[in-house]
Structures are given as C-alpha cells and as structure tokens.
Amino acid sequence: MTQFQTRFTRIGFATRPARGSGLMGSVLRLGGMIAAGIAVTIGALLAVFTAAAVAVIALVAGVVMFLTGFAMRARRSARARTAAAGPDGVIEAEKVGDTWVAHGWERQGR
After folding, report:
1. Domain boundaries, the chain
2. What is the pTM of this model?
3. What's the distance, CA 52 to chain centroid?
C-alpha cells in the first residue's frame, strides 16, 4: 500500500473486516435479526395506534358537526317564532264573538 491509501479510511462493503465468520458472526447476525423484528413490531403497533386515534378524532368531529346542525336548526326555528310574534314579542288578538282569537301562534309550514 502506498502512503496515500493508508491515510484515508476505506469505504464500502468490500472493505469490511472479516467479523462475519465463526461463532461471533452468527451471534451478531442473530442479534441483528431480533432487533430488526422488534423494531418492525413496534412500528406496526404505532401505526395501528395512530390509525385508531385518527378514527376516533374523525368520529368525534362528526358527532360535533351533527350536534351543531341540530343547534343551528333550533336557533332558526326559534327566530322564526319570535319574528311571527312581532318585533317586541307581542302577538295580535281580536275578539270574535265571546272569545279572543290570537294570531301568530300558528306553526309555520302547515
């Protein structure tokens, strides 16, 4: 080897030291396979947990939107009843014969 080659670190798979032979190499390979299996299992569990969390968030958001629709509908119908009664909340009534007839209490849309 020349001085130029010994000064720099060799890079690549072909320049790896021969640790892969013998009992120690087998133990290292087995340990690497076990670590990779554990890492894949943890990753899969985290993916399932994240998907479940997203599903729960979507379900809660749907329920909130559903209830918001009901609240808006109730608010509109309450305004319609108030508007039918007049701006100050007083309804009109007239005496017909011996009874009083009030206008403004009728349901809308009938």
Report:
1. 19-103
2. 0.48
3. 9
